[in-house]
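Quick one:
INPUT:
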């Protein structure tokens, strides 16, 4: 929640400061980008900064694994958080079990929060497309193009695999590949659902409609009752697949 609040504040300030009224009624094919060029410059700089941090983290983990055999939990992101916050760090026992680490690491740390700014602004871009173009074809085509471009860039960064490439997919570090791939999926899903739900009116969104309308309730239930059915349960199988299934169950049936 803190990450969402901070990133929304930054992006909201950018939009409030730099957004201008259109001087012409003519809408060109690149109008949604050129009208927001200051915001894109800011987000691109942050993306480049995130790229450098992710590369540094990757180099740290590779060197530690192959040469020094030290604990480099979280790479440069974890190092900066430990230097800034010291003993006031979130202790994630699940992380320790899965990765056999001993150092503290906060998945909502400083660098991860800053790099998630791009995620929020890509959502703004999706909304700008919706408001800028009136033709359904123009909206859908642009969402699809953005989806393929961001997904392709993310795939290149992670080597089109889960654990390889210069920047692997990592939600806890909020890596650039994670940002781009999830954004690409969101753009494509947005295009598909816009046509299916809003244009063709073939589906009302159920059963996904219900968790979407009660997101805060599910979030609080997951935090306060994470070891209590139906929000969660204790398991002896601590794997990514088990935790994914448990969280999906909690969000759709909790």
């Amino acid at each position: 929640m803190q990450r969402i609040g901070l990133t929304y504040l930054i992006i909201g300030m950018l939009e409030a400061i730099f957004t201008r009224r259109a001087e012409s009624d003519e809408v060109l094919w690149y109008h949604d980008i050129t009208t927001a060029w200051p915001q894109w410059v800011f987000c691109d700089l942050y993306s480049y900064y995130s790229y450098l941090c992710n590369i540094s983290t990757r180099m740290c983990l590779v060197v530690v694994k192959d040469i020094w055999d030290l604990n480099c939990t979280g790479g440069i992101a974890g190092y900066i958080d430990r230097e800034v916050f010291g003993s006031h760090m979130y202790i994630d026992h699940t992380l320790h079990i899965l990765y056999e680490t001993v150092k503290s690491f906060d998945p909502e740390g400083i660098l991860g929060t800053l790099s998630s700014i791009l995620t929020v602004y890509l959502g703004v871009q999706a909304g700008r497309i919706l408001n800028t173009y009136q033709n359904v074809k123009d909206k859908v085509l642009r969402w699809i193009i953005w989806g393929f471009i961001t997904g392709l860039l993310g795939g290149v960064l992670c080597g089109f695999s889960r654990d390889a490439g210069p920047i692997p997919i990592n939600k806890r570090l909020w890596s650039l590949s994670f940002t781009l791939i999830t954004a690409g999926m969101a753009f494509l899903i947005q295009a598909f659902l816009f046509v299916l739900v809003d244009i063709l009116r073939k589906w009302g969104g159920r059963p996904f409609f219900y968790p979407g309308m009660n997101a805060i309730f599910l979030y609080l239930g997951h935090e306060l009752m994470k070891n209590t059915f139906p929000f969660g349960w204790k398991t002896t199988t601590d794997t990514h697949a088990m935790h994914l299934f448990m969280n999906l169950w909690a969000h759709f049936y909790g």
